[in-house]
Design brief:
Rossmann fold; single chain; seven-stranded parallel sheet; alpha/beta
Length: 260
């Protein structure tokens, strides 16, 4: 059973691999033996994490790509496949701070709304489409989208009361769209040997407004706390490994029971 979770020599591309959640995903996959390709739009950010992973004895490589740009994505895929000759896993975890969020939907401009959806659904779709072409040829691969509890549940607006924070309608729509894209692609590509799943975390602690954190925590039945990146990363290792070889089209919610 232990060997089923081994990622030795697997090539795993993590888009947004140096972000809040992505950095923990990258470190843990590398610690399980994978060749981790950390994709960021900021070169220094990716290289900094690569240095940390390599110092710990892992194998990591930095790549720069704008995943909302088709030419940039195709160039990334060409570089990765030329270097490694294969791609075993793709993780879409990048997040963009697009536009100016409104407190209510009537405050959101049409341009910001469409741009947000383009970045957060279009970007993952582009990367997935291009890497999947190689996975189809090799007849294997695991793809993971990063969803959210707000992709499956209406927001609890009350936890934002008295804070400058809110949840964007377009955020929920994007995450729900990715979860359904997961199911669509799993059905379409399963016969080609490709598994497609999603992970939907609850709120991840990142020094948010204390009033919000206190209100959020009251709904988390496991520990009355927000998630940490290391609560999420082990599930990604599972989905990248042979231990999950019979799992596809699933959305795994990791929220400490917050949505119950």
């Amino acid at each position: 059973m232990k060997s089923s979770f081994d990622l030795t020599n697997k090539v795993i591309v993590i888009v947004g691999g140096a972000g809040l959640i992505g950095s923990e995903l990258s470190r843990l996959c590398a610690s399980h033996g994978a060749n981790v390709v950390i994709v960021e739009i900021n070169k220094k950010k990716a290289e900094s994490l690569v240095a940390v992973i390599q110092k710990a004895g892992g194998k990591a490589f930095a790549e720069v790509c704008d995943t909302t740009n088709e030419k940039s994505v195709k160039a990334l895929v060409a570089r990765v496949t030329k270097r490694f000759k294969r791609v075993d896993g793709l993780v879409n975890t990048a997040h963009f701070s697009t536009g100016k969020p409104g407190k209510v939907p009537t405050d959101v401009s049409y341009t910001d709304f469409i741009d947000y959806l383009n970045d957060h659904i279009g970007g993952p779709f582009l990367a997935t489409r291009e890497f999947a072409k190689h996975m189809i040829r090799q007849k294997s691969g695991s793809i993971v989208f990063m969803g959210s509890i707000y992709g499956v549940k209406a927001p609890r607006f009350e936890i934002y009361k008295g804070t400058p924070m809110t949840v964007r309608a377009e955020y929920e729509i994007a995450k729900a769209g990715l979860i359904h894209l997961t199911k669509y692609l799993a059905k379409a590509w399963g016969p080609r040997g490709i598994r497609v799943n999603a992970i939907s975390p609850g709120g991840v602690f990142d020094n948010q407004n204390q009033k919000f954190v206190k209100a959020y925590n009251q709904h988390a039945i496991l520990g009355n706390r927000m998630a940490n990146p290391d609560d999420i990363a082990p599930t990604l290792v599972y989905l990248m490994s042979d231990a999950s070889k019979y799992i596809t089209g699933q959305n795994i919610v990791i929220d400490g029971g917050w949505t119950l």
